[in-house]
Amino acid sequence: MKVGVFKFSSCDGCQLAFFELEEEFLSLAEVLSIEYFLEASSENRWTDFDLAFVEGSISTPEEEDRIRKIRENSKILIAIGACAVSGGIQSARNYEDFQEIFTGIYRGRVSFEIKPHSRPISDFVKVDLEIRGCPINREHLRNTIYSLLIGLRPELPAYPLCLECKRKGNACVVVSKGQLCLGPITCTGCGALCPSFGRGCYGCFGPSEKPNYEAFYEMARRLGIEEKELKVALRLSFNGYNPALREVL
Amino acid sequence: MEGKGKGKGYAVSHEGLRKLFDLLSSEYELVGPALKEGVISYKVLRSFEELPFGCKSMELAGYYAVEKADGYFTYVRPSNSLKTFLHPPELTIMRVKRENGKLSFEYEYPDKKYCFFDVRACDLSALKVLDMVFLHKNKNPDPYYASLREKVFIVAVNCTNHTNTCFCTTMGTGPEVKEGYDFLITELDGRFLLEEGSERGRRLLESLENKEEARQEDYEEKERRLKKVESSMKRAFETEGLKERLYGRMEESFWEPVGKRCLACTACTQSCPTCFCFDLLERASLDVSERVRVWDSCFSPSFATLHRFNLRQSVHSRYRQWLMHKFAYWLDQFGTFGCVGCGRCISWCPAGIDLREEVKRVAYG
Amino acid sequence: MVENPYFLKEGRVLKVVKECEGVFTFHIATEEPAEPGQYNMLYAFGAGEAPITIASVGEGYVVHTVRAVGNVTRSIDSLREGDYLYYRGPYGNRWELERAFGKTLLILSGGLGLAATRWVFERAMESPVKRLIHLYGSKDYESLLYKEFYEKWAKGAEFHITLDRPHPEWKGRVGLITELLKELELEKDAVVFMCGPDPMVKACVKTLEEKGIRAENIYASLERHMKCSVGACGHCMIGPYFVCKDGPVFRYDLIREYFERKEV
After folding, report:
1. What is the pTM of this model?
2. Disulfide-capable partner of B317 in A124, B268, B312, C216 (CB 3.0 to 4.6 Å)?
3. In angstroms, rounded to a whole number, what is the distance separating the alpha carbons of residues A176 and A198?
4. Residue B108 domain-assigned (yes or no)
5. How far A102 CA sits from the closest chain C CA (Å)?
6. Does the distance separating the beta carbons of C75 and A151 come in below 8 Å?
7. Shortest CA distance to A242 belongs to which of A162, A195, A184, A187?
8. Window C:66-85, CB contacts with B under 8 Å
């Protein structure tokens, strides 16, 4: 299986999940044929890929050209991480006046062309599978790779974080601390990391399957947070421009 | 397995309890309540000092806080339930190995030997309910549950307090502990009444030094204290005929109001001491796959999936499934309610939905 | 210690028949006794299990027909003669064939539902059933199952096929199964067994009741997502029933309330 790992507008963090697999990564590297992975090797080769892992959002015209080229050359394209899946934290600009940010913050001193929007991969090409998270969970990566090697369609859960949080034995921070927690509307996957340390979820894995937003706004209201404020906060999150969240913000 | 009935009684001091705790912890993995990050929860205890004596939880729908109180067993049932230990949230039930196109299977049963120290009446009822689901009313008894359950030593405690979300008197499960324990503790004024409930319990209490035989006044004080709690609790709704009423209220219109408020976050089912639903997952690498049993919930968007489509799309239909199961279907399946009135689902609902109000509205509204 | 209900047994694949695109029939060596209506849980490495009805049995083997829809079924459909299949079961209840003795038995099968009715149909042909009718609806010509048996079945019963869509090769009936059913002359005390997609079951019951057949005499084999098959995981519940152990065959009057209501 010829594999390529590619990076777009992102922090490189999700690719690290490959290395977090430690020895398993080395044994997988023997089964897979890793042709292109800048962060792992100095020898990279453009070829036809059976499997392309794509990290990062599309933020520049150059990136748009490149993702189309990767798609053409890949059988299976997997978007990894909140940037590739939703547009990333950099998509916060999508809800603002781009020119204002560009001139106000960067004072126009950027040497390459930037698009006014940071968009997920799926806005440009067909994505076969998404591994969510900021960063992704190495277990999801592991599960995905093994499933494909065994010949199965990888399946990752889409239910709300709360289910995983309870399995961990955490007491709900909304109830016991009066803290806002995005758990009820957020896709599971992180192992309920934040609530396990006594703080509310901030939505790294993006929206869960069809959350009840109305009920969630009501919950936030009880905690003293208005729907308007909440929406602003969600827009500024890693997954604020996720296609499913975009619709409700 | 713990027995029934009221046996011989003794009175001991706070020190006597500590002694019992130590005796039990030499033989069992001791599970009891402890205060952690402002919440009283069941966990594996290392010392007697971890018991949250003198703490009391103030609980409302979607609200929880711990305050100080006079006495020892001043708190109520903890935030989590004992199913955590008998029906663990995540359990590998089998390891599958693949070699030359053939598979082999390995499995082992959990061998933990638990003592549940401080189990309240509602949770004892919940254990009975779980026993029916996994063992007594199942043609295929669950060996994983059985291997843990058969070894459990139970120290029950009578509630001498209640919190706002408790409704054991409605469900007929408490506050008085009646059966299913090895020995029972009731806090009295400055001392503790211990009553044996099984042969194991009898032997343990017998081996305890510095105890007195319980006096008539001790039993009278116990009755008084239980009466006091019981009379301070309001009956939430009528359970007689509830099943039939609910079967007549399955129309969507009865459920839509709560469907609007419900987050479908699954917190109620996960904190419930009797909700047993689980999923079987596969954790595979190239030649080894683990079959893992994890807690699932009828509120999950993928629970009732048939050919990739969840048959219960709407949140209100999931709420209906849950409540109908607890108060109607369960009776037809196992002969009891699936609810023991512990009120955890009320306290731990981040949306602040009060199950009692929903039962009243749907069945009697 | 109680027996482990999740333990998997090994069965050699004795024969594989390709029914149509993505649907295969397997003969699996087994000595497990079973009854028509029951099912096995079939396991696929790394993918998990799927409940698959027992389509028939033979000397020392069981017949399963599997359509590749998910990971488990796709893996199973890649098995070939000589491979091993792992399974547990049989589970569930059976068709109460004796209720049709001395009466008319009508079997209605939709699509892959034929796999769930085939064995009881075969049994019925050898049983004291007064009149045996089997209507089988398939979406198209390509999806027809068990073609090699049609001739034999047509001799042993009133066996009729209808296709939703016409096909140049198809000389038989085209139209929905309910249309075929409407034309059928049927005794009022007939017993009906059916298996098919939920909407087909509902539509057929309606037609049957218009013909004066009572719901107590109608049985349907339901399909729900069973994960444990022993009434413990909760996934397959419909009203107070666990389809995995109380079913999959239900007398219609007992499940109507839950089956016909949306999202129960």
Report:
1. 0.96
2. B312
3. 10
4. no
5. 48
6. yes
7. A187
8. 69-70, 83-84
Whether C24 contacts C18, CB under 8 Å: yes
The size of the A-B interface in CB pairs under 8 A is 118
What's the gap in Å between the CA of C56 and the closest CA on chain B? 24
- Paired with A136 in beta bridges are A133
Cβ–Cβ of A176/B37 closer than 8 Å?
A: yes
Residues B143 and B217 in one domain: yes
Q: Got the DSSP string for B278-300?
A: EEEEEEE-SSEEEEEEEE--TTS
Instruction: Supply φ then ψ for residue A230, to 5 degrees.
Output: -65, -40
Q: A129, A145, A149, A150: which to substitute to probe chain C, counting the most C Cβ within 10 Å?
A: A150
Domain residue spans in chain C? Answer: 9-91, 97-259
Q: Is B99 among the domain residues?
A: no
- Nearest CA distance, B279 vs chain A (angstrom): 12
- Kindly determine whether residue B302 and residue A158, on different chains, have CB atoms separated by under 8 Å: yes
The answer to whether residues B306 and B205 belong to one domain is: no
CA distances from B326 to A214, B295, B301, C224, C228 (A): 26, 17, 20, 21, 20
Most B-contacting residue of A209, A212, A223 (CB-CB within 10 A), to test interface: A212
C97-259: in CATH 3.40.50.80: yes
How far off is chain A from B7, nearest CA to CA, in Å? 36
Q: Is A37 strand, coil or helix?
A: strand
Give the tens place of pLDDT for each residue, A149-172.
Answer: 999 999 999 999 999 999 999 999
d(CA A79, CA A125): 11
What top-level class would CATH report for the domain C9-91? Answer: mainly beta
Walk along chain B (365 residues) and give the pLDDT tens digit of each residue. 444 446 789 999 999 999 999 999 999 999 999 999 999 999 999 999 999 999 999 999 999 999 999 999 999 999 999 999 999 999 999 999 999 989 999 999 999 999 999 999 999 999 999 999 999 999 999 999 999 999 999 999 999 999 999 999 999 999 999 999 999 999 999 899 999 999 999 999 999 998 999 999 999 999 999 999 999 999 999 999 999 999 999 999 999 999 999 999 999 999 999 999 999 999 999 999 999 999 999 999 999 988 888 999 999 999 999 999 999 999 999 999 999 999 999 999 999 999 999 999 999 99
Contact A147 C46 (CB under 8 A): yes
C74/A147 CB distance under 8 A: no
**3-state helix, strand and coil shares in percent for chain A, rounded to the nearest 5:** 40, 15, 45
Which value does ipTM take for this structure? Answer: 0.94
Match 């590998």 to its residue by tokens.
B92
Contacts of B250 in chain C (CB under 8 A): 257, 261, 264
Pick A2-150's CATH classification: 3.40.1190.10, 3.40.50.700, 3.40.50.410, 1.10.10.60.
3.40.50.700
Q: Does residue B165 sit in the same domain as residue B252?
A: no
Q: Determine the distance in angstroms separating the CA of B42 from the nearest CA of chain A, rounded to an integer.
A: 9
Range of the domain at B218: 9-86+113-232
Q: B227 and B260 in one domain?
A: no
A209 to chain B: nearest residue by CA?
B301
List of chain A residues whose C-beta atoms are within 8 Å of the C-beta of residue B283: 143
Residue C182's alpha-carbon distances to B308, C140, C176, C179, C212, in angstroms, are 33, 20, 10, 5, 12
Most C-contacting residue of B100, B105, B139 (CB-CB within 10 A), to test interface: B105
Contact: A146, C46; criterion CB under 8 Å? yes
Decide if B281 is inside a domain: no
